[in-house]
Amino acid sequence: MNQVKKADPNNKTVAENRKARFSYEVLDTIETGLVLTGTEVKSLRQGQANIQDSYASAEDGEIWLINSYLPEYLQANRFNHEPRRRRKLLVSKREMAKLAQSVEREGMTLVPLKIYFNDRGRAKLLLAIARGKKLHDKRETEKQRDWSREKGRLLKERG
């Protein structure tokens, strides 16, 4: 009998920054943990987070996620969290040094790509070391995407 695997309910993407790959050239990615309060985790499980305009910065030997939006959990009343607070990212010391060095010396940016729950049910953030694209690079990316889409249509038509 053919068993269909069900998608793991814990391992799901909560928020994705789709503009990041268009605006930035992603050079490397790192999985980081997030320091969250209980109401923030419950809010994430509802899937209404937004990381479109957020970024990460290295300050005082720590890495912080800035300007991410996690809406308040409605059932939490007075114990709720602030939606746009700075959240600490959990990274090893070696990775932290690598990130801080790339930001300071090479002029890179730390861009969050997505927030998801891993197979153990922990909230994780996929953080990218990226370089900003120029306007002509963005146009080239658009041309490549349009061409691959057109190529797929042609192959589907003839095949």
TrEMBL record:
**Coiled coil regions, renumbered to chain:** none
Q: Where is this region: Disordered?
A: 138-159
Q: Does the keyword Nucleotide-binding apply?
A: no
Supply the alphabetized keyword list. Answer: Cytoplasm, RNA-binding
Concerning Pfam families, the annotation shows: SmpB
InterPro entries, per the entry: SmpB, SsrA-bd_prot, SsrA-bd_prot_CS
**Localization, UniProt:** Cytoplasm
Identify the CDD domains for this entry: SmpB
Matching Gene3D superfamilies, A to Z?
Answer: 2.40.280.10
The similarity annotation says:
Belongs to the SmpB family.
Database matches in PANTHER family: SSRA-BINDING PROTEIN, TMRNA-BINDING COMPONENT OF TRANS-TRANSLATION TAGGING COMPLEX
Role, per record? Required for rescue of stalled ribosomes mediated by trans-translation. Binds to transfer-messenger RNA (tmRNA), required for stable association of tmRNA with ribosomes. tmRNA and SmpB together mimic tRNA shape, replacing the anticodon stem-loop with SmpB. tmRNA is encoded by the ssrA gene; the 2 termini fold to resemble tRNA(Ala) and it encodes a 'tag peptide', a short internal open reading frame. During trans-translation Ala-aminoacylated tmRNA acts like a tRNA, entering the A-site of stalled ribosomes, displacing the stalled mRNA.
Name of protein: SsrA-binding protein
Query: Organism source for this protein?
Result: Mesorhizobium album
